Amino acid sequence: MKTSDCDILIVPGHLNASDDHWQSRWERQLSTARRIEQEDWESPRKDDWVARIVEEVARAEKPVVLVGHSLGVIAIAFAAPLLPKDKVKGAFLVGMPDVDRPDFEPVVDRAFAPIPQDPLPFPSVLVASRTDPHCEFDKAEDVSYAWGSALVDAGDAGHLNTDSGHGPWPEGLMRFAGFLKQLT
Q: For the chain, what is the domain count?
């Protein structure tokens, strides 16, 4: 699949993605990419976030590929069973946070936990770092197996955001292009 063959829906995490974040850069670079805007980026509510994903997938005119980062990954997992099986062709998921941890961001709706464990109904990749302050690698590995996601070990990459030096993130874009080629 080529980028022109699909609607790429970008699902940022808590606080949205800054202009320098790789998701924002991809949104500007990829002509069929658009961000799923949330009403409240600062105090995320699971049901609101999931509803927006469902709405935007329904609104898409082409097959959909989801690109989630951080809390957006968890929102996609909750939305997955509500999405039309024939419309979503895949999900590229990066930097999943461990919302099951009791010390997870207190402003984030606790309804984001526990992390869904059902297999995702579409092909997916979960990119995880061994030094992500928001999720231990072993947890990401366990969740990737539960979801049926291909796990990509990003090594020592922090949370894969601008704070960890992943503004442009060309390796991620190459990995995303490879993922798209596998989709039909």
A: 1
pLDDT in tens, 72-91: 999 999 999 999 989 999 99
Q: Which residue has the tokens 């039909």?
A: 184
φ, ψ of residue 89 in degrees (nearest 5)? -95, -20
User: Closest Cα partner for 130 from 151, 150, 156, 101?
Assistant: 156
Dihedral angle over CA of 63, 37, 30, 68, nearest 10: -70
Backbone dihedral angles phi then psi of residue 23, each to the nearest 5 degrees: -65, -40
Residues of the chain with confidence (pLDDT) below 70: none
Contact 85/63 with Cβ under 8 angstroms? no
**Domain ranges, residue 162:** 3-182
DSSP 66-115: EEEETHHHHHHHHHGGGS-TTTEEEEEEE----TTSTTS-TTS-GGG-SP
CATH assignment at residue 151: 3.40.50.1820
Angle at 85 between CA 80 and CA 86, to 5 degrees: 140
